[in-house]
Write a structure and sequence with these properties.
Length: 316
């Protein structure tokens, strides 16, 4: 080899090494998978803007009694404590009805007009509370007085749900227990409530007892007479580490929870699970109380982690 050819060969060799080492690689992006410390899976980096766009939420690992669950079926009914009859304020004649059955009204909204006998003046009748007009009981032109019920208004922002509980499960139900209801009309919604009454009597034919719960219904989505399924939450005496069910993902068939280690970094942590309920999971190993874990949107982090792993596996 000539004197001039030798340096050129060395330069060519160095260039070849650089090309080979860079093949298939790209500069680190804002959203990427990174290698975590030994003993843990890889970490994922997501900008705060991306986290917000994907709906990523973080909650602390809780140490509290684990809640077992019991599935029940029931039916929505009127809470009679939230039912009012609208009476005429004076004796007179019903001059006009301003609402119709099924109409929602606000508190103190005009609902009727009467021609007062004492003053011969038109007097407005107002709704004593917000709610839904369930019935109109008087007709225009009829004589009315303060004992006359002109209409019935029901506040359906809270309703009753009466559930059937089998005899062998009676000991599990207590007043004050948390319960959630679902309807086939709204498969993705959970309506929260609490048990307010446990019947002391067992039905001789069905061998069930009635459990009544007061359910939150702010937008009147639950209708009177609607059938619902309920999840009764039964707390246990034993404390456990609890995370939301949505926080758990599976990678290579192993349970993983994403722990936030920085404003824009999340570590995939291997965990060992215990009891599971519809909305929560007991963690036996892998987490500590108070650690911030991803509650919703964790599947996005899983996808980002797998994408980084696949890209690395295809690198040359």
């Amino acid at each position: 080899m000539s004197y001039f050819a030798r340096p050129m060969a060395i330069v060519a060799g160095v260039m070849c090494v650089l090309v080979l080492s860079g093949c298939g690689r790209s500069p680190a992006a804002p959203e990427s998978a990174e290698h975590a410390e030994e003993g843990h899976r890889e970490a994922v980096r997501l900008s705060q803007v991306t986290q917000q766009a994907l709906g990523i939420t973080v909650v602390p690992v809780e140490l509290k009694p684990f809640e077992q669950t019991l599935s029940v079926t029931g039916q929505i009914a009127q809470d009679t404590d939230r039912l009012v009859h609208v009476n005429a304020p004076d004796a007179g004649v019903l001059h006009e009805v301003l609402v119709t059955i099924g109409q929602r009204v606000e508190a103190q909204a005009p609902v009727a007009v009467i021609q007062s006998n004492p003053s011969q003046q038109a007097v407005q009748v107002v709704a004593p509370r917000a709610g839904l007009v369930l019935g109109v009981h008087a007709t225009v032109g009829a004589s009315v007085d303060p004992l006359t019920s002109l209409m019935t208004i029901a506040d359906l922002s809270q309703v009753w749900a009466t559930f059937d509980l089998y005899e062998q499960d009676v000991a599990l139900a207590q007043v004050g227990q948390r319960i959630e209801a679902q309807s086939v009309a709204y498969p993705d919604r959970f309506f929260p409530g609490a048990v307010v009454f446990v019947s002391p009597q067992v039905d001789q034919h069905t061998r069930t007892i009635k459990v009544r719960a007061r359910m939150e219904n702010p937008d009147y989505a639950l209708k009177l007479g609607m059938f619902v399924t309920g999840t009764l939450y039964i707390p246990t005496a034993e404390e456990a580490l609890i995370v939301p069910h949505a926080a758990v993902q599976r990678i290579e068939d192993e349970p993983v929870v994403f722990v936030q280690t920085g404003p824009e970094t999340f570590e995939a942590r291997d965990v060992q699970l215990g009891y599971e309920a519809p909305n929560q999971v007991q963690v036996l190993e892998g987490l500590k109380p108070g650690e911030p874990v991803v509650a919703s949107g964790s599947f996005h982090l899983k996808a980002e982690l797998l994408k980084g792993t696949l890209e690395e596996g295809h690198a040359h």
